Amino acid sequence: MKGEYWFYEIKTALTARACLREAIGQLLEYGYWPGAQEPTRFIVVGENLIDEDGQEYLLRLRKRFSLPIEYEAIGI
Q1: Contacts of 23 (CB under 8 A, 6+ apart)
Q2: What is the CA radius of gyration of the chain?
Q3: Cα–Cα distance between 11 and 44 in angstroms, integer?
Q4: pTM for the model
Q5: CA 59, 55, 38, 63: dihedral to nearest 10 degrees?
Q6: Helix pair angle (52-65, 16-32), 10° resolution
Q7: How does pLDDT run across 13-51, given as a tens digit for each residue?
Q8: Which residues, 6 or more positions from 36, have their beta carbon under 8 angstroms from its beta carbon?
């Protein structure tokens, strides 16, 4: 969509949880550092599927902090 910014961070950690841990700080800096383009979405990309706990974690981040974050698993 025009005028939207989606920020992706690709991680190669062994679990989706570790990918989230490594990526979230970087994504926040990319999106909210002074002068940055505010994102519409943050997407963490990893090789492994996210489990139920990981989904709950992302849901909490979206609800509590209005953080537009998602996780995508891509097989390599």
Answers
A1: 9, 11, 44
A2: 12
A3: 7
A4: 0.91
A5: 0
A6: 20
A7: 999 999 999 999 999 999 999 999 989 999 999 999 999
A8: 30
